[in-house]
Design goal:
heterodimer, A: 111 residues, six-stranded mixed sheet, five-stranded antiparallel sheet, B: 11 strands, 52% strand
């Protein structure tokens, strides 16, 4: 069955540095990959989507890369701020199919 | 305001009881999803519906049931067969054009 792994349960990064989160998957060929942010007790909020034929996407301080050969996506937050502290979830889907999530990475930006 | 509304925010279930979680959306989205989240865990798919009057089992459907009689509504029933129902339940609808999920604010279900 398909499996999604996010590299670490928790990540501590100094304010101002770049935070890099990893999402790996197996037994799956997604049409696209998404990243969501979730704050405690709240529903996830969509951040970025990258399609299988795209290598990189940017939005303000966020950057996502997608390597379908390595079956891996990297999610970068540059110039990180304490307000970026949250859990970040990776999700995969094929077109017109279910969307499945990884376990998430808790990111702590230290002032 | 457009969005997804889940109710109640907190729900308590007694032994042997069925409970129903409500999910309503006014975004005119065709597809809707139910996920379960345990502490420190990601989202696991319970059921999803891509169109009215149709739904499919997700990865952990046992002990749950759903209906999709209206486009706006996708209620989830947690039956007495679900022996470990304590979790945070999230409903979402899919913006198919932009391929992104919109989530409700969740329902925390606990067992008395």
């Amino acid at each position: 069955s398909q499996k999604i792994e996010q590299n670490s349960e928790a990540l501590n990064i100094q304010e101002g540095k770049t935070a890099t989160l990893t999402c790996n998957y197996t037994n799956y060929s997604p049409a696209y990959l998404q990243w969501y942010r979730q704050d405690p007790g709240r529903g996830p909020v969509f951040l970025l989507l990258i399609r299988e034929n795209e290598k990189e996407k940017r939005k303000e301080r966020l950057k996502v890369t997608f390597d379908t050969t390595l079956k891996q996506s990297l999610f970068h937050i540059t110039a990180s701020q304490p307000a970026d502290s949250a859990t970040y979830l990776c999700a995969l889907a094929r077109r017109d199919d279910k969307i499945i999530f990884g376990k998430g990475t808790r990111l702590h930006i230290l002032p | 305001d457009g969005g997804i509304t889940q109710s109640p925010k907190y729900l308590f279930r007694k032994e042997g009881q069925n409970v129903t979680l409500s999910c309503e959306q006014n975004l005119n989205h065709d597809a809707m999803y139910w996920y379960r989240q345990d502490p420190g865990q990601g989202l696991r798919l319970i059921y999803y519906s891509q169109i009215v009057n149709d739904f499919q089992k997700g990865d952990i459907a046992e002990g749950y049931s759903v209906s999709r009689e209206k486009k706006e509504s996708f209620p989830l029933t947690v039956t007495s067969a679900q022996k470990n129902p304590t979790a945070f339940y999230l409903c979402a609808s899919l913006d198919a054009t932009n391929e992104k999920l919109f989530f409700g604010s969740g329902t925390q279900l606990s067992v008395l």
